[in-house]
Amino acid sequence: MVSHVEPLVLPLQPLACFYCPGIKRESLNGSLTKMTKWKTIAEARRIVEQETGAIYKDWGGKLPVALAYPNTYYVGMSSLGLQTVYRLFNQRPDVVCERVFWREGGRRGENREWRMERGQELVSLESQRPLGEFGVVAFSFSYELDYFNALEMLRQTGIPLLAEERDEDDPLLIAGGPAVTANPEPLADLFDAFVIGEAEELIPTLVETLQEGIGQKRQSLLSALAQLPGLYVPTHPLISNLQPPISNLHPVKRQWIRDLDAYPTTSVVLTGDTEFGDMYLVEIARGCKRGCRFCLAGHTGRPLRERSVATLLHQAREGLKHRDKIGLIGAAVSDYSCIDELVTGLREMGTKISVSSLRAAPLSETLVKSLAESGSQTLTLAPEAGAERLRALIHKDISADDVMRAADLAARYDFPRLKLYFMLGLPTETEEDVQAIVDLVTALGQRFSRRITVNVTPFVPKAHTPFQWAAMMPQAIIRERLRYVEQQLRPRGVAVKSDSTAWAAVQGVLSRGDRRLGQALTKMDRTSLAQWRRALRESDLEADEYLRQRSLDETLPWSVVDSGLSQAHLRREWERAQAG
Known about the structure:
By secondary structure, the chain is α/β, with parallel strands linked by helices. Among the domains are: 49 residues, no CATH class; 201 residues, 3-Layer(aba) Sandwich (Rossmann fold), CATH 3.40.50. The protein contains 20 helices and 17 strands. Strands 2-1-3-4-5-6 form a six-stranded mixed beta sheet. It has a four-stranded parallel beta sheet with strand order 13-14-15-16. Strands 8-11-12 form a three-stranded parallel beta sheet. α9 packs parallel to α10 and α17 packs across α18. The protein is globular. The chain starts with 24 loop residues before the first helix and ends with a helix.
């Protein structure tokens, strides 16, 4: 436990130097910087004092790695992927890995965020060291919109934004996570290297290469990294620049592990200051067999792999030492092949259960009953579309009857709330399809009389999916259709929540962008739509260029990555979708 540090309090008198020409302004700036630094350190120590499981290491003779999550502590500590990488690095005796989070602002409705003043230096939680003192800074990107936060973190630390401007005295910047595994190109000018895919089997050779190369010529280290499987180094000569179109390209193969049981993926650090603070998280499976044509995780997470029931029950026993609830994590927990056996075993241990995701079919009654008995307040389903035609087109193979049966189970086991996810702007969507959302929810309301919440998100095409060629529907049309859904459902007592159509369009640009966007990102002084539009104009770029439908014969920026699925397969699925 780290001892408490009293914050440094400045006397009022130095403030007069703003008005007194006889006192240098720099002296006050130094005092304010010192106060801000102590406030930062004290806040970091307060955070770790409330944690269980944080890993502390002496830095002597070890490779220092900052694991940076470009969102708030509250959001980042909900990421099982972040916790897994933290464990993998710190399992090695030659590495010290510490966490760093973006700290300005916060998300609406969260009042426990760790906030910071603009210009305040970022420090790691474990040792409160500045980001610039680490040899490696490894960013984890789950969402494209977090790119803006990452640049803000670099600015606050003073690390040059562009890779070409950094030298041997600067940390090596590496990025990983679902967003950059799909398409690293928008950040290609900013990061030195990218981890493509799953990191479990890659980290040992990565660390060995870094240990040998840190402190030597930067280009020599980058050349060595480019030889590793799953490492994309944009400046390496095997990778040609993406303007003009790619030539002699050697795509980097996405890495994935075959035996999940060999690598535990569970909570490492426990804190109450996060969305899942009351539970111990356990990943039960990885990948998905469904092949929904819009889904990034369902394509870049393939093949489906499951952990054994025995392994999961053992991990749950360890988790029960810390929490009385186990959170089961997977692309579709209800698809786990032994879900009834797993749930029965957990309940026999006296465990409460929570799940990350459910499908309307198949939906185990044993699982639903166990969720109700565990105190779950909401049963969450994702029909995605209201019309059977559109669900078939996106390959979401559930029927309206499946959704109705799920609502019946929610009513039978007395869930207070039923939550439904839909998308607007899917390819070929018509006004009749929008009306079908209203009709389906209205019919569900006749089967489930308690609270229904509908979340509507704009469809964003993703790389390495069959819809990677699709156009993104104009914002004005999506907004109009969203208003219609709201006007129809709210009088029926249905709460309707939605994401910003404007920011969804920004995500659409970043998800299928090229490396020209990196230069545009560096032109933004702060994160706002106005700054984003100005940066695109000054870079001679247009959002519509990225949001348009792509032709099947054009070179795609994300072709630098081999996702494991052939373009021929994705093309067949796209053509089948267009044919209905």
